[in-house]
Amino acid sequence: MDLYIAAFGFGLVSLSVIAIAAVGFTMQFGITNVINLAYSSVMISSVYVAYAFNHAGVSIWLALIAGAIFGAVFSFLLNRVLYTPFQRKGTSLLGMVIVSLATSLMIQNVLLAIAGPYNVSYVQPSGGTIRLGAIVLTVVQVLVIGIAVVLMLAIHALLTFTRLGKAMRATAANPTLARNCGIPTSRVIDVVWLITGALCGIAGVVAGMNSDTFAVGNGPGYLITIIAAAVLGGAGQPYGAMLGAVLIGEMTELSAAAISADYKEVVAFAVLVLVMVLRPQGLLAKRGALAAAG
Amino acid sequence: MNYYVETILVYAGVDIIACLALNLQFGVSGIVNFSFIVFQAAGAYTAAVLSMPPDTASGMSFQHYVLGLQLPFPIPWLGGALVGGLLAIPVGVLLLRRLRSDYQAIALLVLSVIVNTVITNYRPLFNGAAGLSVIPPPLSERIDPYTATYQYLYVGITFVCCLLVLFVANRIVNSPYGRTLRAMREHELAASALGKNLVALKLTVFVVGGIIAGLSGAILVGFISYWAPITWLYPETIVLFAAIIVGGRGNNLGAILGGLLVPLGFEEITRFIPTGFGPPGLGPAIQWVAIGLLIIGFLWFRPKGVLPEPRRVFNEAGIEESPFMEVRAS
């Protein structure tokens, strides 16, 4: 039993990582209508930017900020240089999926050429451990959970209490109507890419801090858990993504304790298929995968 | 040198067959099958275990796999094609039934990654990450595979398979069924409003594509005698997509041209780029970046490809060709 309680503790950490990543991913889709399959590639690039700073002697927390800034700027540029022009050209949703997948492949391979295929890890203070019954977490892991909680509260506050958040929700609901009401939608979308890119970068770096080692090849694995969490909660729904992250994070860690850690992603995928078959609109969304493409 | 030419010819044949199959799904019907390579792999694994001796036989104990039936030549290939088609049924039923098309694409992409992970980690089925090796070439008990005759024979059989697949693909594209597929691609709602069963259309073309993909895998594995998870990672599907986008979506000739230019061209051209500078793996990395640039470049500058799909204008009996129709056609 202790094994499962310990796994539940690890689940808290991985759900925090997934939540940060999945909220960014789902906001990109919900507000800008791009399924950004390059998300995981931006994420792993941020991991390596932070790694470069970290190994130059900068503390991991400053490196985390560097990773966040990199993720934000990179995502912003990705949208400005690639996605927006293709969308303006009238590329279909499917066309955008292909474009983003090709982009993902390119980013990943440029990174592979620069960083090499090796497993590396951050230099970080070991700090010690915190015990709570059978749950044993390192201080870093507890801080990761803390970062996730703060970020989720910040996203909630942004969407609920600020004019910018209101503009974002309006743009997500109906971009044409939002524009006609005087909302500068293209500027709103720029800000969305900056914010979600920062979330993407932070998620990458905390994922790197949470795992013993990481390599460029981890990218596709991130993407599967992120997509599973986002779709489970209802694609395009930030709160849905948070709920999806909680479920996927705990399920993958508990299954790792029960079966084998090799099959974590398979469990995430099984959940994804079940949701797509039984409830394609996700747990929270009223409309989602069932809506006509267009 | 001769062996090099024959290898290229067989690879070209396999790529052309795969591109024709993917063109039926992606080009003609608009199904973005990001797990295409899984069906090719299913055909390859099936053909391998049908033609190999049991894993308890002498000299095979270093690998574990199921079956090992040692069946004579055409059966493993037919089995590969069959399994490719059979696998398409559950995948199609699960993923193509109700989902929006961009969700389908993502689900298929995730499927591709996951199936590879499972086969890599689960050893009893197809020997896990190490993969199957020493797969006997077809007909090797009659003809020595190391002779020139055998190589020519293999190229010949591959060529015949290409022609066969091209014939089938052309018949499909030019049939009323093919027309319905194009209608579905252009406007799902309109096709459905005209009483076309979208799910049945998608499923059938998914199965046909799966059968052809399985055959292409069987041909490839018989020639290279080796098959492992590393040979069918999900980016391999993207290469085929690049081929079809470059060649011309929806046009079988375009698929053939793309199959010749992209997978083969890139493999062979990069072979002649000097190695030994930069970090290890720079060459393949450049290759993948080039594939990505090719897709994005063509989608931006020439989305219809080198050989665009022919515009079909129907002049039905009883309707005279009016100036209006000419305007529409031009």
Give a quick precis of the structure.
The complex is a heterodimer of chains A (294) and B (330). By secondary structure, chain A is mainly α. Chain A has helices at residues 2-32, 39-55, 60-88, 93-115, 139-161, 163-173, 175-180, 185-210, 219-233, 238-258, 264-278, and strands at 129-132, 135-138.
> Total strand count of chain B, please?
2
**What is the total domain count of chain A?**
1
Poorly predicted sequence stretches spanning 5 or more consecutive residues of chain B: 321-330
- The helicity of chain B comes to 55-70%
H/E topology pattern of chain A: HHHHEEHHHHHHH
Q: Can you write the helix and strand succession of chain B as a string?
A: HHHHHEHHHHEHHHH
CATH architectural grouping of chain B: Orthogonal Bundle
Structural domain count of chain B = 1
Shape of chain A: globular
Structural class by SSE content of chain A: mainly alpha
Distance between the termini of chain A: 49 Å
In DSSP terms, counting alpha (H) and pi (I) runs of 4 or more, how many helices of chain A? 11
Question: What is the distance, rounded to the nearest whole angstrom, between the alpha carbons of the first and last residues of chain B?
Answer: 49 Å
Count of discrete alpha- or pi-helical segments spanning 4 or more residues of chain B: 13
**CATH architecture verdict of chain A:** Orthogonal Bundle
The pLDDT mean of chain A sits at: 87
Roughly how many Å is the radius of gyration of chain B? 21 Å
